[in-house]
Write a structure and sequence with these properties.
- The protein is of the alpha/beta class.
- It is built from 4 helices and 7 strands, in the order H-E-E-E-H-E-E-E-H-H-E.
- It has helices at about 15-30, 95-105, 140-165, 175-180, and strands spanning about 65-70, 75, 80, 110-115, 120-125, 125-130, 185-190.
- The strands form 2 sheets. The chain has a 5-stranded mixed beta sheet, with helices on one face.
- Strand 1 and strand 2 (about 75) form a beta hairpin.
- Helix 2 (about 95-105) packs across helix 3.
Amino acid sequence: MAKKKKKAGEINSSSMADIAFLLLIFFLVTTTMDVDTGMKRTLPKWIDTTEQQNDVDVNERNVLKVNVSRSGMIMVGTDEYTSADLRRGARHSRLSQEVYNFLTMPDRSVKEPKEIGTTKCDVSKGLVSLKADDETKYKVYLQVQDELTHAFNLYRDDISMQVYGKKYDELDEIQGTALRKAVPMSISEAEPNDQTKK
Protein backbone atom coordinates (compact mmCIF):
# COMPACT_ATOMS: atom_id res chain seq x y z
CA MET A 1 0.00 0.00 0.00
CA ALA A 2 1.34 3.40 -1.01
CA LYS A 3 2.10 5.86 1.75
CA LYS A 4 0.36 9.21 1.62
CA LYS A 5 2.70 12.19 1.63
CA LYS A 6 2.15 14.49 4.52
CA LYS A 7 1.46 18.04 3.57
CA ALA A 8 4.01 20.48 4.93
CA GLY A 9 2.52 22.58 7.68
CA GLU A 10 1.84 26.20 6.76
CA ILE A 11 3.72 28.94 8.57
CA ASN A 12 1.45 31.24 10.48
CA SER A 13 2.07 34.66 8.92
CA SER A 14 -0.50 36.62 10.85
CA SER A 15 2.18 38.33 12.99
CA MET A 16 4.40 39.34 10.02
CA ALA A 17 2.71 42.73 9.72
CA ASP A 18 3.44 43.41 13.40
CA ILE A 19 7.09 42.47 12.97
CA ALA A 20 7.45 44.67 9.85
CA PHE A 21 5.84 47.57 11.72
CA LEU A 22 8.21 47.15 14.69
CA LEU A 23 11.24 47.03 12.35
CA LEU A 24 10.04 50.20 10.62
CA ILE A 25 9.69 52.00 13.97
CA PHE A 26 13.14 50.77 15.04
CA PHE A 27 14.80 52.19 11.91
CA LEU A 28 12.91 55.49 12.17
CA VAL A 29 14.01 55.96 15.77
CA THR A 30 17.66 54.97 15.30
CA THR A 31 18.37 56.67 11.96
CA THR A 32 19.72 60.21 11.95
CA MET A 33 18.90 62.65 9.18
CA ASP A 34 21.29 65.31 7.97
CA VAL A 35 19.91 68.80 8.43
CA ASP A 36 20.69 71.33 5.74
CA THR A 37 22.46 74.40 7.06
CA GLY A 38 21.90 77.77 5.57
CA MET A 39 21.56 81.42 6.36
CA LYS A 40 18.70 83.83 6.26
CA ARG A 41 19.35 86.58 3.77
CA THR A 42 17.04 89.13 2.19
CA LEU A 43 18.08 89.57 -1.40
CA PRO A 44 17.99 93.03 -2.95
CA LYS A 45 15.21 93.90 -5.39
CA TRP A 46 15.79 92.75 -8.95
CA ILE A 47 16.95 95.52 -11.29
CA ASP A 48 16.21 95.31 -14.99
CA THR A 49 19.56 95.46 -16.80
CA THR A 50 17.94 97.23 -19.77
CA GLU A 51 17.19 100.23 -17.58
CA GLN A 52 19.91 102.78 -17.03
CA GLN A 53 21.66 102.10 -13.76
CA ASN A 54 23.26 104.67 -11.54
CA ASP A 55 26.52 103.54 -9.99
CA VAL A 56 26.56 104.05 -6.26
CA ASP A 57 29.73 105.72 -5.09
CA VAL A 58 30.91 104.30 -1.81
CA ASN A 59 33.60 106.08 0.13
CA GLU A 60 36.58 103.71 0.39
CA ARG A 61 36.83 104.58 4.09
CA ASN A 62 33.35 103.11 4.63
CA VAL A 63 34.27 99.68 3.20
CA LEU A 64 35.76 96.85 5.24
CA LYS A 65 37.08 94.18 2.88
CA VAL A 66 36.92 90.56 4.02
CA ASN A 67 38.49 87.93 1.75
CA VAL A 68 38.30 84.17 2.33
CA SER A 69 40.80 81.93 0.53
CA ARG A 70 40.25 78.32 -0.51
CA SER A 71 42.57 77.18 2.32
CA GLY A 72 40.36 78.91 4.90
CA MET A 73 42.62 81.91 5.52
CA ILE A 74 40.72 85.14 6.06
CA MET A 75 42.05 88.59 5.24
CA VAL A 76 40.37 91.59 6.84
CA GLY A 77 41.96 94.62 5.27
CA THR A 78 45.65 93.73 5.60
CA ASP A 79 45.29 91.57 8.74
CA GLU A 80 45.37 87.79 8.52
CA TYR A 81 42.82 85.66 10.40
CA THR A 82 42.39 81.90 10.77
CA SER A 83 39.40 79.70 11.55
CA ALA A 84 40.39 79.93 15.25
CA ASP A 85 39.57 83.66 15.05
CA LEU A 86 35.94 82.72 14.30
CA ARG A 87 35.39 81.19 17.75
CA ARG A 88 33.43 83.43 20.07
CA GLY A 89 34.52 84.28 23.57
CA ALA A 90 32.15 85.99 26.00
CA ARG A 91 30.75 88.39 23.41
CA HIS A 92 32.89 88.42 20.27
CA SER A 93 35.19 86.41 18.09
CA ARG A 94 38.25 88.23 16.77
CA LEU A 95 36.48 88.73 13.41
CA SER A 96 33.19 89.99 14.84
CA GLN A 97 35.14 92.34 17.17
CA GLU A 98 36.92 93.84 14.15
CA VAL A 99 33.65 94.37 12.27
CA TYR A 100 31.96 95.78 15.39
CA ASN A 101 34.87 98.24 15.89
CA PHE A 102 34.59 99.24 12.25
CA LEU A 103 30.90 100.06 12.70
CA THR A 104 31.15 101.82 16.07
CA MET A 105 34.40 103.80 16.00
CA PRO A 106 34.08 107.29 14.46
CA ASP A 107 37.54 107.13 12.87
CA ARG A 108 36.78 103.81 11.11
CA SER A 109 33.54 104.55 9.21
CA VAL A 110 31.49 107.69 8.53
CA LYS A 111 28.41 108.17 10.70
CA GLU A 112 25.24 109.88 9.56
CA PRO A 113 22.32 111.12 11.67
CA LYS A 114 19.16 109.03 11.23
CA GLU A 115 15.76 109.38 12.79
CA ILE A 116 14.50 106.18 14.38
CA GLY A 117 11.06 106.59 15.87
CA THR A 118 11.26 109.99 17.56
CA THR A 119 14.98 109.84 18.32
CA LYS A 120 17.92 110.94 16.19
CA CYS A 121 21.18 109.07 16.47
CA ASP A 122 24.36 108.66 14.47
CA VAL A 123 24.46 105.44 12.46
CA SER A 124 27.45 104.02 10.61
CA LYS A 125 27.42 104.07 6.80
CA GLY A 126 29.91 101.20 6.92
CA LEU A 127 29.71 98.38 4.37
CA VAL A 128 31.39 94.99 4.73
CA SER A 129 32.53 93.58 1.39
CA LEU A 130 32.86 89.79 1.51
CA LYS A 131 34.73 87.96 -1.23
CA ALA A 132 35.47 84.24 -1.25
CA ASP A 133 37.21 81.78 -3.50
CA ASP A 134 35.15 79.33 -5.59
CA GLU A 135 36.76 76.47 -3.67
CA THR A 136 36.30 77.92 -0.17
CA LYS A 137 34.86 75.32 2.18
CA TYR A 138 31.19 75.95 2.81
CA LYS A 139 31.61 75.53 6.58
CA VAL A 140 34.24 78.29 6.77
CA TYR A 141 32.16 80.57 4.54
CA LEU A 142 29.11 80.07 6.78
CA GLN A 143 31.17 80.76 9.91
CA VAL A 144 32.44 84.02 8.42
CA GLN A 145 28.88 85.01 7.43
CA ASP A 146 27.68 84.15 10.93
CA GLU A 147 30.33 86.33 12.59
CA LEU A 148 29.57 89.27 10.27
CA THR A 149 25.87 88.94 11.11
CA HIS A 150 26.70 88.68 14.82
CA ALA A 151 28.67 91.96 14.68
CA PHE A 152 25.78 93.76 12.94
CA ASN A 153 23.29 92.40 15.48
CA LEU A 154 25.46 93.65 18.37
CA TYR A 155 25.64 97.05 16.67
CA ARG A 156 21.85 97.01 16.32
CA ASP A 157 21.66 96.21 20.05
CA ASP A 158 23.69 99.35 20.80
CA ILE A 159 21.49 101.58 18.63
CA SER A 160 18.35 99.94 20.04
CA MET A 161 19.51 100.65 23.62
CA GLN A 162 20.08 104.33 22.69
CA VAL A 163 16.69 104.71 21.03
CA TYR A 164 14.34 102.32 22.87
CA GLY A 165 16.23 101.39 26.04
CA LYS A 166 16.08 97.66 25.21
CA LYS A 167 17.93 95.16 23.04
CA TYR A 168 17.16 94.59 19.37
CA ASP A 169 15.60 91.14 19.85
CA GLU A 170 13.23 92.56 22.52
CA LEU A 171 11.66 95.11 20.15
CA ASP A 172 8.13 94.79 18.85
CA GLU A 173 7.45 94.45 15.10
CA ILE A 174 7.13 98.19 14.38
CA GLN A 175 10.25 99.12 16.36
CA GLY A 176 12.24 96.25 14.83
CA THR A 177 11.27 97.28 11.30
CA ALA A 178 12.25 100.90 11.96
CA LEU A 179 15.62 99.82 13.38
CA ARG A 180 16.36 97.41 10.51
CA LYS A 181 15.57 100.17 8.02
CA ALA A 182 17.90 102.62 9.79
CA VAL A 183 20.64 100.05 10.45
CA PRO A 184 20.63 97.66 7.48
CA MET A 185 22.76 94.51 7.37
CA SER A 186 25.26 96.08 4.95
CA ILE A 187 27.13 93.00 3.76
CA SER A 188 28.04 93.02 0.09
CA GLU A 189 29.04 89.70 -1.45
CA ALA A 190 31.46 90.11 -4.32
CA GLU A 191 31.69 87.57 -7.10
CA PRO A 192 33.95 84.68 -5.99
CA ASN A 193 37.45 84.20 -7.37
CA ASP A 194 37.64 81.28 -9.80
CA GLN A 195 41.05 79.68 -9.17
CA THR A 196 40.56 77.07 -11.91
CA LYS A 197 41.21 79.66 -14.64
CA LYS A 198 44.65 80.58 -13.26
